[in-house]
Amino acid sequence: MSIENKPRRSIIISIFIGLGIWLIALFVTLSWFQNQYIKSFTDHNPNFLNVSFTDLWFETLLTHLPAKKSKARIIQLWKPDCLCNRFARPHSLAAVELTKALGYEHITIIPAEYESRISSFQALNPDTQMMVIDSSLLDTWPSAPSVLIEGSFNQLVYIGPLGFGTFCNQATTSAIETQLTGIANNQVRPFYNLVGKGCFCNWE
C-alpha cells in the first residue's frame, strides 16, 4: 500500500467509526423515548377502560367546570412540557378551528403546577379558555395530550387522544371531526377511544 493511501484509509475508518457511534446513540435515544413516552392511553389508570368509571369521572369533572353555553364543547387536557405535544399540536389546532367554525366552546385544562403561566398560555391560545382545576380528580387522569367532547345533553361523546398512531401522524383528527359534526347534525354516538398505543405523558 502506498504512503498516499494510508491517510485516505484512516479517514474512511474514522468515518465508519463516527457513523457507528451515531447509529448507536440514535438507537439508545429512540429506545429511551419509546420506553418513556410510547404507551397505551390507559396505562396510567386502566380504570378508564370501564365505561361506568369513565362516565362517573366525567360527571364529577363537570361539577368543576363552568356551565356549557353552546351545543357542545371540547375539553382538552394539555401538559405544557410534554414532548408529545409536538406531534399532537396539528391535530389540536385543527380541532380548535373546527370547534370555532361550528360555534362550540373549547376549554384547555392544564396541571395546577402551571397556574402562574396561565395568562401567557391564554395569550398564545386566544381561541380556547385556559383553566386550571386544582382538584385531586385530575390526578387519576391517564394521559396527555388528550380530549373529551361534551355533547348536547352533557353526555360524554368522545374520550381519547387527539390523533392516532404512535406519533399521531394521520393527516386528520377524523374521530373528533366525526363526533363534532355528528353533534351538529344530531347524529352522534359515544366513542371511547381508549385502546391503542401513542405518544403520551402522564398527567401528574
Report on this model:
By secondary structure, the chain is of the alpha/beta class. The protein is 40% helix and 16% strand. It contains five helices and eight strands. The chain has a six-stranded mixed beta sheet, sandwiched between helices. The relative contact order is 0.18.
Radius of gyration: 22 Å
The share of residues in extended strands comes to: 15-25%
User: What distance separates the N and C termini?
Assistant: 63 Å
What is the count of β-strands?
A: 8
Low-confidence stretches: 166-172
Question: How would you summarize this macromolecular structure in one to three sentences?
Answer:
The chain has 204 residues and is an alpha/beta fold.
Task: Considering the chains and any ligands shown, give keywords for the structure.
8 strands, 204 residues, 5 helices, two-stranded antiparallel ribbon, 40% helix, alpha/beta, 16% strand, 6-stranded mixed β-sheet, elongated
Reconstruct the topology from this structure.
Blueprint: H1 5-37, E1 38-40, H2 51-62, E2 73-77, H3 85-102, E3 105-110, H4 118-124, E4 129-132, E5 146-150, E6 156-160, H5 174-184, E7 191-192, E8 197-199
Parallel strand pairs: 2-3, 3-4, 6-7
Antiparallel strand pairs: 1-8, 2-5, 5-6
Helix pairs in contact: 3-5
